[in-house]
Amino acid sequence: MKTITIEGQIRTEFGKTATRQLRSEEKVPAVIYGGAKEINFAAPAVAFKHVVYTPDFLIIEVKVDGKAYKCVLKDLQFDKVSDKLIHIDFLELVADKKVVVTLPIKFVGTPAGVKAGGKLVTKIKSLKVKALPKDLRENIELDINNLELNENIRVQDVKVVNMEIMNSPRIPIASVTMTRQLKQEEAAVAKPGTPAPAAKAAAAPAAAAKAPAKK
After folding, report:
1. How is residue 186 annotated by DSSP?
2. Are the beta carbons of 70 and 93 closer than 8 angstroms?
3. For the whole model, what pTM was predicted?
4. Could you give the residue ranges of the DSSP H alpha helices within the chain?
5. Residue 26 CB neighbour total at 10 angstroms
């Protein structure tokens, strides 16, 4: 599992003045909670770049005051005007305490419906799960090889070990839909007296063979 390290400094002063001073130094206030005690610290804004702007699930090791805390990202706050990061919350991972996190879905395989001419449409790209820290993983692999044309795969179809999926079971994750070309071909076949696309192709050389040769 991907892990990144952030080094910060304990915050000893609070309030608007202290916060403005931190931001003037290009630092972001942050907090770690969920463990034995709450840890308030600050770190350079650039240190959070790979935590904030990534689709990956990460374990963050925060080093503060000579101690290291294994955490996951919990919440972010941005300035409404400048869109700069102004606060970040981390949840400390405790061995015997379950946590709720969001894991990306990794689709594996090529759907049978796509091979038949359909198009894969993904409805959601991640799942919310509850698990012990030792059971967390980078992503949830989802085999879609058997997904047929006009079929859905739903949350209830996902099987994971040592995890509880928190999303509603009936929510569709992905489906295979007809492409415009496939719809047009099926519509043409459905018209009385209209040969199927394959039949048209076969009829062309036959008609050419019957045509009289030019003198």
Report:
1. H
2. yes
3. 0.78
4. 16-24, 49-52, 112-115, 180-190, 197-210
5. 10
